[in-house]
Amino acid sequence: MGRVWQRLREDARVAGWMLSHGALITFWLLLFGIFLGHMRQRLGYLTAHRPIANDLPCKSPECDFSVFWPAGRLAREHAYHLLYTPGLFSRAADAMLRPGSHIQTFFYPPPTLLAVALVSHLPFEWGFFVWTATLLLLAAAVLRLARVPWGVILAGLFSPAGLWCLELGQFGIIGGALLVAGVVLSRRAPWRAGGLLAVLGLKPQLGLLVPALFWGQRNWRALCAFAAICAGLCLLTLLLFGWGVWAAYFTAGRGQSISVADVAFNPGTYQGWGVSVFWMARSLHAGLALAYAAQALSALAAAALVWWIWRREGVEPLDAMALTVFLSLLATPYGYSDDMVAYSIALAWLVWRRGWRIGLLDVFFWFWPMLCIDVAAKTGILFTPLVVGLAAARTWHRAGLPLPHLPRRAAVLPRA
Question: How far is residue 133 from each of residues 24, 174, 256, 358, measured CA to CA in Å?
Answer without folding.
Answer: 25, 11, 30, 30
